[in-house]
Write a structure and sequence with these properties.
2 domains, 40% helix, 4 strands, Kinase-like_dom_sf, Tyr_kinase_AS, serine/threonine-protein kinase, alpha+beta, Phosphorylase Kinase, domain 1
């Protein structure tokens, strides 16, 4: 689950990993915490590899949440759906495709694989127009 909030005076997103009721509670807690820590480590490593990621503000191992910087801007999916009606859309789509290719290349060169690589999970920052 994803929630918008204010964290230390800044807009933020909280991502909650909720428990799976079909799992034994002890196993569920261990798996959830392992995934939570893994996601935080991967985002940190991705940033070191040159991939722009939201800043991780906090990890709460008891509540199973990650708190990230709020990134203002449309998803790549929304931009692509609207691009066809705009003049010069081919250039815009090509620029986005190149940015995605570079980011995925950096991840793969660093030994990371994105587990859910979709255009809905990518944001074009309003301030810089970058992925």
């Amino acid at each position: 689950r994803i929630f918008e909030t204010i964290f230390m005076g800044r807009r933020a997103i909280i991502k909650e990993r909720f428990s799976k009721k079909y799992r034994h509670p002890v196993l569920d807690s261990k798996l959830t915490l392992k995934r939570l820590n893994g996601e935080a480590r991967c985002m940190t490593k991705a940033r070191r590899l040159g991939v722009v990621t939201p800043t991780l503000f906090a990890l709460d191992s008891e509540m199973h949440t990650l708190t990230f910087e709020y990134v203002e801007g449309p998803s790549v999916k929304d931009v692509l759906l609207q691009a066809g009606s705009l003049p010069g859309y081919e250039e815009q789509i090509e620029d986005i495709a190149v940015q995605i290719g570079r980011a995925v290349g950096h991840l793969h060169d660093g030994g990371l694989v994105h587990g859910d690589l979709t255009t809905s999970n990518m944001i074009i920052r309003s301030d810089s127009k970058q992925l």
